[in-house]
Amino acid sequence: MNDQKIYIIGAGLAGLVAAIELEKAGFAPIILESTGEIGGRVKTDEIDGFLMDHGFQVLLTAYPEVKHYLDLSALHLKTFEPGAVIFGEKDSYIISDPLRNPLKVVGMAFSRVGTFLDKVKMFSLTQELKKKPVEEIFSSPSVPTLQYLKSYGFSNQIIDNFFRPFFRGIFLEKHLNTSSRMFEFVFKMFSLGHAAVPEKGMGEIPKMLRNQLSNTQIYFNSPVKKVEGKTIFMKNGDELEADRIIICTQPDRIMEQLQGQFPAAKPVITLYFSLQKSFMARPMLGLVPGESHLINNMVFMDDVSPAYSKNDRSILTVTVLESDLNEKDLVQAVQGELEHLSGIKAEYFKFHKSYYITHALPTVVDLKASIPVTECKIMDHVYLGGDYMLNGSINAAMTSGRLAAEAVMLSYTPTH
């Protein structure tokens, strides 16, 4: 089967997993990547002696697909402490373990975040979702997450102080309009496993996938202009004839008939600052409740994995969900907020880098855990992969790559 020309467009997680599966079946696929590196949205840069992920991302160790494709011990995962540092208007306080074992939460801290009844409800929801299969979660009725939380009986206090800032940072939208299916799935993953990062950054994940490839060629800096039938038109003018094509990037950009078929993706802005030392001093996410701040969440990455800083300063990643400010004004505004929240003068927060990520998460209307492999085929010889087909997650990206490869293999299976 090595003589079959199978092209994969995009060397993100979906494309790499598709290549892994095709190699297992005896194919030697070719990946066309528009940039100079693998990983898609999962990348890590080294700048000024710091590791900087493209956007604040974590790996949830309970993701089902992760166990198939990643050797978690070889990634030397560094885990976040369950819970959060809540930065209130007057002071900050820690809420420990609210998802993993809410009944053990220290009474004082929790009482500031939610009520005793919230604690009981958090515990019962955790237990329910641990037992609820993922497929059942994604076939449950879908309502906005905010409505789901209110219907479950959580108080406004815990919704405003914990759920809103925590899940806004995951869903990348301010109003928790994201489907309750995604909420239940993520909540289940947090309660079953850990949030973690590879010791040397999220970019280690695609590197590990690539290292599983031996018969796949990757052509970098090879942007595709369009796909028509079995022909790939490259932006440099080349034309490639394929037997099968798997598109693991935004397909509406390269297939005219799909333009307007996908809702706009969710953007995010990530800013990196360094400080002489962390003012949180623990591997925990910092949440900023309320509507008046630009900062939604922040974390000193070297508190989680010391390898993120190769000098004597601490590296802080700050997530801003939306802002119309230019970079200079945004940096100043965020430094001002950091001073207000920490009591440390704004000028001590040294700015290093911003990432304006326009396509951080896909907007998926009908969230799913999986789809039949036949649904990956969009037309004869052309298949789709990408988290936008299922739900916005590392798990979904890997699932979609596997399904697309299985669909291609199915097309070579003789029918009787």
Structure description:
This is FAD-dependent oxidoreductase. Residues 13-409 form the Amine oxidase domain. InterPro entries: Amino_oxidase, FAD/NAD-bd_sf. With 416 residues, the protein is α+β, with helices and mostly antiparallel strands. The chain has three domains: 6-42 and 203-262 and 365-411, FAD/NAD(P)-binding domain; 44-80 and 194-201 and 266-361, Polyamine Oxidase, Chain A, domain 2 (Alpha-Beta Complex); 101-191, no CATH class. It contains twelve helices and 21 strands. Strand 16 (286-287) and strand 17 form a beta hairpin. The longest helix is centred in the last third of the chain and has 18 residues, at 394-411. The radius of gyration is 22 Å and the shape is globular. The two termini are 20 Å apart.
What's the helix and strand layout?
Blueprint: E1 6-9, H1 13-24, E2 30-32, E3 44-47, E4 50-53, E5 59-60, H2 66-69, E6 77-79, E7 83-87, E8 92-96, H3 107-113, H4 116-131, H5 134-139, H6 145-152, H7 156-171, H8 180-192, E9 195-198, H9 204-210, E10 217-219, E11 224-228, E12 231-234, E13 239-241, E14 244-247, E15 266-275, E16 286-287, E17 295-300, H10 301-304, E18 314-320, H11 327-342, E19 350-361, E20 377-379, E21 382-384, H12 394-411
Parallel strand pairs: 1-2, 1-14, 2-10, 7-16, 14-21
Antiparallel strand pairs: 3-4, 5-9, 6-9, 7-8, 11-12, 12-13, 15-18, 15-19, 16-17, 17-18, 20-21
Helix pairs in contact: 1-9, 1-12, 6-8
Pfam families: Amino_oxidase (PF01593)
Protein name: FAD-dependent oxidoreductase
Organism: Algoriphagus pacificus
